[in-house]
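Lab channel / #folding
Pinned by the channel admin:
"Please post every new chain as: sequence first, then the structure tokens as a reply. Keep commentary short and put observations after the output so the thread stays searchable."

First post following the new format, from NK:
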Amino acid sequence: MPEWLDLLLENFADPDSAARAWPLLRQGVGLTLKLTAVALPLGLLLGLLIGMAYALGGRVTRALLIIYIDLFRAFPVLVLLILVYVGLPFLGLTLPAFAAAVLALVLNNSGYFGEIFRAGLLSIPHGQREAAAALGLSPFRTMRLIILPQALRGIAAPLASNALELVKSTSIASLAALPELLRSARVAQEQTYNPTPLMLAALMYFVLLWPFARLVARLERRMLARGSR
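Reply from TO:
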């Protein structure tokens, strides 16, 4: 075996280091999935409420929602986590690390999800609302039964793409000393004095995110095909 290949395998694919790191990495994957399972539905729900409130609200409501969307999209999620986890205790509110990470992820992503839902709902022709009103449907029922189902078909791809970004953003939880996948890999690397755990973490991220990436690509192709008709 060439010396360079032996050196490469020893440093980035060492079986002993991988075996020692596996319990930590398994714990890290579990926490990453837990963060995603909590933050993603909350971010989607809040984004949906923002989009519907914008579509149904008046001028003042819309202005306030635009400020909210722009504010939390402008803040990097890492900065939000610092403000929530480090800044709030100065105001007498101390959140557990997990709750702080979830709150930062939800606030940041609700801005993106809110903008996606807002654009999708407003893309539906206004005449459909007028027709629904003529049939006696309330604005909320019109939104829920007629406008929202149509909008979802057009925004499925950007929603899935932003969900993919949320999963990747869970790595910021390491700042709050949460043993998610990246932090677990770094701890294992420090214990083994070998970068193999980091390579394993990268591979695990790929396995987790690749199906999301393929789903996004498939939805984007469907949108392009629908738009070309």
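NK: Residues 3-227 form a domain with the MetI-like fold fold (CATH 1.10.3720.10).
TO: also worth noting, The chain is about 85% helix and 0% strand.
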